[in-house]
Amino acid sequence: MSLRLSTVILPYRRWHEGGRSAWMRAEQLGFHAAYTYDHLSWRSFRDGPWFGAVPTLTAAAAVTDRMRLGTLVTSPNFRHPVTLAKELISLDDVSGGRITLGIGAGGTGFDATALGQESWTPRERADRFAEFVPLLDRLLTEDAVSYEGDFYSAHEARNIPGCVQRPRLPFAVAATGPRGLRLAARYGQAWVTTGDPKLYENGTPEQSVQAIRTQTEKLADACAAAGRDASALDKVLLTGFTPDRGRPLESLDAFVDFAGRHQELGFTEIVIHWPIPDSDFAADQKVFERIAMEAPSQLT
């Protein structure tokens, strides 16, 4: 199978001051999908412009025709399944059925406390995620849902007419722990990883590849336990968080080498960040565009 190449466009620019043109250019370059982060603010961008994921994707759907669109990733940090489901059904309709929901358990960043709550522990995040995903699955596939859980409730929540994509839009579940991998195996149409964060500062690319190989093996075990073939899930690597950092975007050859090593692990999609000057995602725009246009044919 050919390796698909996608991009993630951070929502830090006003729509008419570079935001719109980036999404249109991404489709022109032939990317399989363009995603955006679903945060209220994020890291070094916290004190600068940052726009909402769902309105941004709605606008992107209006200026593109073929490219898939989605989040990498949405989390329970500030989302509720009932309201999120309504937004996703609307977004899937506007886009003509081109939406993928990247979804994860969330972290300890600004989103975790923006609503005034204490940051959840890893166990609390896992507990909420284990309830969030199945409820969202129901909300996107059933006309009316009532549910009373430990963290979330729904009372005769209506979601008519449902998604354009049937039975619902696909979930790309970001997970590395055992509980998250079980959710990916049961509910995911794709699995997402950024690698092992413990290796980012002092690890080597070789150690990273081995760690990701171990993750894929654990995913296969989770799929087997769920009675599912792991090859049925797309495997997505969101780049920029492994020890390689920005080196794969320094040249076409560097990227093909990087992507090829991960393709051998079974990955079906590699996601690269749209270049942002003076940031961790700085890259030469011309090299980036050359990778977009030429790398896929070298990764068949």
Concise summary:
The chain is α/β, with parallel strands linked by helices and 300 residues long. The protein has helices at residues 19-28, 53-63, 81-94, 122-141, 178-187, 205-225, 252-263, 285-298, and strands spanning 4-8, 33-36, 68-74, 99-103, 144-148, 153-158, 171-174, 190-193, 234-238, 269-273. The protein has an eight-stranded parallel beta barrel, surrounded by six helices. It has a two-stranded antiparallel sheet with strand order 5-6.
Structural summary, described in words:
This protein has 300 residues and is α/β, with parallel strands linked by helices. It has eight helices and ten strands. The strands form two sheets. An eight-stranded parallel β-barrel has the order 1-2-3-4-7-8-9-10, surrounded by six helices. Strands 5-6 form a two-stranded antiparallel sheet. Helix 2 links the parallel strand 2 (33-36) and strand 3. The longest helix has 21 residues, at 205-225. It starts with a strand and ends with a helix. The mean pLDDT is 97.
